[in-house]
Model the fold of this input.
Amino acid sequence: MNGLIPRILAGGVFAYMGLFKIIAWNATAGWMAMKGLPPSLIPIGLVIAILAELGGGLAILFNFRLKWVATALALFMIPTNIIMHNFWALPPEMATAEQLSFLQNVIIIGGLLAMANTTAKQENGAASSSKAA
Done:
């Protein structure tokens, strides 16, 4: 199965979130504005997020360059998480929900890096065994 279930779970969620941003463009743009992004950067940020999430999600689902895509998505999520879930800058009554979202994204980043690392080890093992044959 070569990690089919983890790829369906992770890739499916990323692809869905990218598609959701297309369908709910205005709502997502409003949320980004509420988080303090400058209006001129919101369309650019949305396009980047859609490409990363929808494209990355589909790439994970179809096992396309998994090591690189999982690493790229993890790297994309780090600054996104810091900017969009900055719980430390919020009043206490709002901070808890954002902190939970922040920590959930940290878990996802860890999972993506583990996926990339496992894939790299599998590729290295396959390369070693094909050289031995």
